Amino acid sequence: MHAWPASEVPALPGQGRDLRIHDTATGGTVTLDPGPVARLYVCGITPYDATHLGHAATYNAFDLVQRVWLDTKRQVQYIQNVTDIDDPLLERAVENGDDWAELAERETALFREDMTALRMLPPEHFVGAVEFIPRIVPMVERLRDMGAAYELEGDVYFSVEADSHFGEVSGLDAETMRLLSAERGGDPERPGKKNPLDPMLWRAAREGEPQWDGASLGPGRPGWHIECVAIALEYLGMTFDVQGGGSDLAFPHHEMGASHAQALTGEHPFAKTYVHAGMVGLDGEKMSKSKGNLVFVSQLRRDDVDPAAIRLALLAHHYRADWEYTDAVLDEAKSRLARWRSAVSRPDGTAAEAVVEEIREALANDLDAPSALAAVDRWAAEQERGEGTDPGAPGLISRAVDALLGVAL
User: Fold this and answer.
1) What is the distance between the alpha carbons of residues 178 and 193, in angstroms, rounded to a whole number?
2) Tens-digit pLDDT profile for residues 70-106
3) Does the pLDDT of residue 388 top 80, yes or no?
4) Which 3-state string (H, E, C) describes the chain?
């Protein structure tokens, strides 16, 4: 599976700061200290309804992570998956009368278009779960053979008790885990499981469902969590720098994935840091496919909304905050974009080097994009008053906003 084309990231004078970011697993702020190559895994879409603003907000957050790292002169090894086989995808295909594979391909193509328009930096590897099934099967077999997994009526479950570190990612108590498991794709009430929280590794073939050769597991398809584990271990190995996604992935997805990997390898941790983006709401509820209260990037683009304005609407909110989308949010982003473009179009500008450093410091401080926007707003206001005398300032601000915030002026 191929990703999308990369937009050029302008080089800036000086060097960025190391990123200080909130770690879900510790509940505090940590300073990331990758080597020369920073390793990032972000969980991708299930392609049956892409790309809504909740998706876009999540990928915007981790695009900022990459841009901060690039500004420190590091390389970035970024991996993203596509969950192109899962229950919600199959259910939507039946509901719409679609072929599930065609639906996944169509929605993935639309996602690529949206990411390109929003100038999100592409992953080095953009990997579908289906193409990785031949590598997933041996992992499930190994977990079973080492006693970390067991069979139940043909299905294979992971035993959470096989990992002594289970629970350390989300920090949740067992009852909360059980409730969230039921809400987010688990089956805690199924009789015969050793622990209600045990997640499925391999789903035995059911009539009318797609299936693949599972070798000694029998025909079927993989569970959700093991897909990301297989992809991450293949391209990043253990103890990579950041595992990212929306806050609804902390449990069960990232918790279970960490335990799968740790049981498989005997190493800990799976990822050094767990970073989660907030949820975007509409009409008082979280924006979600199940509720149908979605604002799509593609529809905004069809309505001739400049993608740079969409991106500014996302950047106006701290990545960890839950926030509500309204027309006023987008209107303010459009006005900001117009002010900034007017400001950089002037032949002279007020000194820009300090503004660039403000942007850098804001982003290094737990991706504080609203403070970065405020710094550019102040510079733009000075431009409106005609206070500038530096002919190089507008160009430097334009390059900085592009390089660090992903907004083309």
Assistant:
1) 13
2) 999 999 999 999 999 999 999 999 999 999 999 999 9
3) no
4) CCCCCCCCCCCCCCCCCCCEEEECCCCEEEECCCCCEEEEEECCCCCCCCCEHHHHHHHHHHHHHHHHHHHCCCEEEEEEEECCCCHHHHHHHHHHCCCHHHHHHHHHHHHHHHHHHCCCCCCCEEEECHHHHHHHHHHHHHHHHCCCEEEECCEEEECHHHCCCCCCCCCCCHHHHHHHHHHCCCCCCCCCCCCCCCCEEEEECCCCCCCECCHHHCCEEECHHHHHHHHHHHHCCCCEEEEEEEHHHHHHHHHHHHHHHHHHHCCCCCEEEEEEECCEEECCEECCCCCCCCCEHHHHHHCCCCHHHHHHHHHCCCCCCCEECCHHHHHHHHHHHHHHHHHHCCCCECCCHHHHHHHHHHHHECCCHHHHHHHHHHHHHHHHCCCCCECCHHHHHHHHHHHHHCCCC
pLDDT digits (tens, 9 = 90+) for 211-269: 999 999 999 999 999 999 999 999 999 999 999 999 999 999 999 999 999 999 999 99
Distance CA 261, CA 255 (A): 10
Beta partners for residue 153, in sequence order: none
What is residue 348's predicted lDDT score, i.e. its pLDDT? 87
Instruction: Provide the b/e sequence for 131-167 (b: ≥16 CB within 10 Å).
Output: ebbeebbebbbebbeeebbbeeeebbbbbbebbeebb
Q: Phi and psi (nearest 5°) for 203? A: -100, 115
pLDDT band at 289 (very low <50, low <70, confident <90, very high): low
Interatomic CA distance for residues 107 and 153, integer angstroms: 34
Residue 288, pLDDT above cutoff 70: no
Neighbours of 404 (CB within 10 A): 24
Select from 55, 69, 73, 65 the least CA-distant residue to 22.
Answer: 65
Rounded CA separation 364/356 (Å): 12
pTM exceeds cut of 0.85: yes
Give the whole-angstrom CA distance, residue 406 versus residue 121. Answer: 9
Tens of pLDDT, residue by residue over 345-363, are 999 888 899 999 999 999 9
pLDDT computed for residue 283 by the predictor: 76
